[in-house]
Write a structure and sequence with these properties.
Number of strands: 5
Number of helices: 3
Distance between the termini: 30 Å
Oligomer: single chain
Radius of gyration: 16 Å
Shape: elongated
Helix content: 25-40%
Largest sheet: 5 strands, antiparallel
Strand content: 25-35%
Order of helices and strands: EHEEEHEH
Structural class: alpha+beta
Length: about 120
Amino acid sequence: MADPTAPNRPPDPTGRPTRFLTVMTTIDSEAKAGKLARGAIEGGFAACAQISAPVTSVFRWNNAIETGQEWQVLFKTAEARYGALEAYLLQAHDYDTPEIIATPVTHGAAGYLSWVAKETS
């Protein structure tokens, strides 16, 4: 019987379990968020990107406290594609220092993760 506590990860072509990430960034317009999302999918850097409605961000920048509306973009990708996704975001983003945060996916539906692996290979 399979270990029910083991993460659901399809193997990569070498037989090792594929590791997955969600990667988040924010940007100051819905149109720019859509452009970042579409570019990442077209480039094969992520299998999916979700754009969330505007959020209010409060942050310190250049010794001042700023407040602004931003759109969050959450990418689903294989860990092996993180470097390419980060490079794309740094190149395509218009912020001086864009937020790019990756969180490991510890468990997931096997069919969904297989799809992510296929779309990012």
